Amino acid sequence: MDALASRAEVASFWRKPSLSRRCLPNLIHYPPFDFRPFRVITLRDFQWRLGIEWTLRRFKPDVVSVHVDALVCARIKRLAPQMPCVFTAWGHIPPSVLHGDYAKAFPVMDGFTSDSKAVLDELHTVPGTEHIRDHIFRFGVDHTRFRKTDDSQLILRELNLPNDAFLIFSARSLRSTYNHETLIHAMPMIVESIPSAHFLFVNAHGHRYSDAAAYIEKIKEMIAARGVLERVRFIEHISHDRISKYYSAANVTISIPIEDSFPATIFEAMACESPLVVPDLPDYAGVVDSTCAMLIQPTDHEGLAQAVITLARDQKPRESLISNGLQIARTHGNLDFEVDRLMEFYQEVAGV
Questions:
Q1: Torsion of CA 188, 194, 196, 201, to 10 degrees
Q2: Whole-prediction pTM value?
Q3: CA dist., res. 200 & res. 234, Å (int)
Q4: What are the domain boundaries of the chain?
Q5: Which CATH code fits 2-140+335-350?
């Protein structure tokens, strides 16, 4: 939002203000006193018809960007048929929804955005969407914030780990979607080969999800059953001003969902020079390959263990992945560049 706000006047609707790290009110203008010629309105999971209608009349946007709920686009088109409307999908939409409730909403849209070409291809399988323009927008990183730091020993002390700990960071939220089970199955093999191995899990945004607590208990039981619970640390959500310290302290960062779009985790870890192990998914095509990350099948715990062991024992592939990953983060994960391209897409859709 900040990046868009430096380029346009933005109004943002949130169904639950608490979902914003800043506790945004339901309606906010960015910036409040600097009116620019191009305007964007972003509606996120907001379903009150009167609120939408009032905002459209008051704000008079050039384009509307709707996240997650495609039915909001349909409502907007009924209220303002000529209003350009762009739908953003952050992740794969279940086919039953894509070809069910959303099937009538998608053809009236003016644009699609996603962080994955595979997701965009799925959107275009809905009849009547063949003509709709699309754009890949990946969350880049602020390289002044995400960079290698010298706080590794500080982080190890905070985690109550030995100074020589080999830290393996599972960087995705503690939810079943992100397939932490494969890492747990790999733990005994990793510990046998790397006696200093320790593991870190982060419950990112866990307070948002009702299933998070039960899932944490499940994986703790799995870890305890393998006799390595004393080697594992769990922490709650890490603030943006500290997360680079954890990536920098991690000898390996792991993100192995069975299905994904394109997570910010990849660019964040690369920018902080933490070597990555990720699944070989079509969503990462064109950005991530074997030159900048160790690629595995997401349920292959033996392959995961071997990837981690290789990174612990062999400096040459480790240094190569770090160097290539840093370059990828700079070229493909530049936030300002990505936002500039997104603004160009909005302007193209709006015809301004």
A1: -50
A2: 0.83
A3: 6
A4: 2-140+335-350, 152-332
A5: 3.40.50.2000
**Fold: same for 2-140+335-350 and 152-332:** yes
Q: Which two tokens stand for residue 307?
A: 């990837």
Rounded CA gap, 259 and 95, in Å? 14
Note every long-range contact of 317-326, with CB atoms under 8 Å and residues 24 or more positions apart, other chains counting.
318/275, 320/291, 321/275, 321/276, 321/291, 321/292, 321/293, 321/294, 322/273, 322/274, 322/275, 324/291, 324/292, 325/269, 325/270, 325/273, 325/275, 325/276, 325/292, 325/293, 326/270, 326/271, 326/273
Residue 189: phi and psi, rounded to 5, are -65, -40
pLDDT in tens, 125-164: 999 999 999 999 998 888 888 999 999 999 999 999 999 9
Residue 258: pLDDT band with limits 50, 70, 90: very high
**Highest CATH level, class, for 152-332:** alpha beta
287-301: burial string, b at 16+ Cβ within 10 Å, e else: bbeeebbbbbebebb
Query: Tell me, what DSSP letter sits at residue 145?
Result: T
Quick check: 242 pLDDT over 90? Answer: no
